[in-house]
Amino acid sequence: MNILVCVKQVPDNAVVPTLDPATNRVVTQGVETMVSPFDLNAVEAGLKLAEEHGGEVTVLSLGDDSCKTSLRIALSMGAAKAYLVSDPALEDSDSFAVSYTLAKAIQHIGQFDVILCGKQAIDDDAGQVGAGIAEQLGISQVSYVNEIVEVGDGVMAVKRVTPTGEEVVQAQLPVLLTCEKSLNEPRYPTLKRTRQANRMEIPVLDCAAIGADVSKVGKNSPSAILKLYAPAPRQSGELIKGDAEEIGKTAVEKLVEQKIV
């Protein structure tokens, strides 16, 4: 079974984002980064599928050379190969352009039975790239997967989360899955694998190499952010003190005051 996992390098979620007033962008220079957490669940799912059904895991990312750090984390977990798509023309790409570019890269790299993505990246929380890749490739997709139930001859059954409960869905291979945190617990890299990952060559592919049309990416993306701003700070709440009866009475009075109840 050939498996590909898309990973994204994002600012560390412990860092409070700041905006550069000159560029109206989030400041990333000098900011600590990490693999988007849901992508680690996707890597773990790929490794488990390879262990149970044979084959290997390839990881793919899009960004500048620093994104090799995230790819090496996936390699140190057990992935066999890694590729980076990097090209100045990709700067300012929207979700559609990123999906298009990754789909082109996947077609360039080879044929895959399963493609795995995190359910969303934690920097913009759009959750659109996985579905976009499947659409570009013309393959089955299942989103918000929290369990891989069964893998059969050319089909896969998975359980997915919905607003009203859970569904068990069967899909034809090849299929793209977007992964929930509840799907698994990502393994820790071993020292041996980390040393191997640090020595591995990571091919860098530009738009020309994968056959991506630069008129569809970057500043030519079909959508653009018109304005980016930090939300207004929230006012601190009021702390009600006293015993349970007093707190309950005061809370109800204040709710009535505000016409909430």
Q: Would you kindly provide a brief summary of this structure?
A:
With 261 residues, this protein is of the alpha/beta class. The protein has helices spanning 37-53, 68-77, 95-109, 129-137, 191-199, 207-210, 244-257; strands at residues 2-6, 9-11, 19-20, 25-26, 33-35, 56-62, 81-85, 114-118, 140-151, 155-162, 165-172, 175-179, 204-205.
Largest sheet, order of strands side by side?
11-10-9-12-8-1-6-7-13
* Helix-strand pattern: EEEEEHEHEHEHEEEEHEHH
Distinct helical segment count: 7
Oligomer: single chain
Strand content: 25-35%
Tally the structural domains: 1
CATH topology: Rossmann fold
What is the makeup of the main sheet?
9 strands, mixed
CATH superfamily: HUPs
Mean of residue pLDDT values? 90
Q: Tell me how many strands there are.
A: 13
Question: What CATH architecture would you give?
Answer: 3-Layer(aba) Sandwich
From the spread of the alpha carbons, the general shape counts as globular
CATH class: Alpha Beta
Q: Briefly note the structural class of the backbone.
A: alpha/beta
Low-pLDDT stretches are none
Rg from C-alpha positions? 22 Å
Helix content class: 25-40%
Structure commentary:
It is built from seven helices and 13 strands. Helix 2 crosses helix 5. The chain has a single domain, classed as HUPs (Rossmann fold, 3-Layer(aba) Sandwich), CATH 3.40.50.620. The strands form three sheets. Strands 11-10-9-12-8-1-6-7-13 form a nine-stranded mixed sheet, with helices on both faces. A two-stranded antiparallel ribbon has the order 2-5. A two-stranded antiparallel ribbon has the order 3-4. By secondary structure, it is of the alpha/beta class. The chain is globular.
